[in-house]
Amino acid sequence: VSFCDTRFPGHLLLPPRPINTDDAQSPASAPQVIGSLGSFIYAGFGTAVHRWNNSAWGTSVLTLSAAATDIITVRLPNESAVYTDWIVICNNANTYYSSDGTTWLTDTTDNQYMTIWDGRLWGIDSTGQMRSIQTLDSATVANNSWQTHKPMTIPSGSVTDLLTGKDATGTEDVIYACSRFGAYAYDLDNARWVTTQLQLPDVVGAG
Q1: 7, pLDDT greater than 80
Q2: Cα-flanking dihedrals φ and ψ of residue 177, to 5°?
Q3: With CB atoms 3.0 to 4.6 Å apart as the test, which of 43, 71, 119, 143 could cross-link to 137 if both were Cys?
Q4: Could you give the CA distance from residue 146 to residue 94 in angstroms, rounded to a whole number?
């Protein structure tokens, strides 16, 4: 078994070198999500989000209403149509976002998992309701305009992730929802979820 890195065509690289870090001032805690914005790394430890300062986890920069379920970095326009880098965290109750990692806004949209596709941020909640947004307001959360899309018809609590990948033809990227029952592709043009060939019996932890 080899752990060498083959992600780069024509190159075989050594595996990443593990480096021990401290524990965000919480020995019993492990991070649920890890993301980045600019040159900084952020991690969610329970309801606390910490920023890595190159030698240790700093004090909490954000307190969540519940443990984070997903984190993503996106580049979307703000209310002035200025494209901005955002770090976005969700926990199936609220969606938090920031452009600098210091000032955070709390959107009550209850995304559980997120992805970026077609110039929009997409989210899905535990009931299978999907939504998307094209701009994020840097000052007033109430100005955010989420568009709802066709919900999934699988049982509530079955979704395990939201991601993008090639369609059945291998040419276009589409959105996939992973679930305990397998993967489903979203057909935006026809507003429907399409069953893929990856279907499973009801398996807790699938996806």
Answers
A1: no
A2: -110, 120
A3: 143
A4: 13
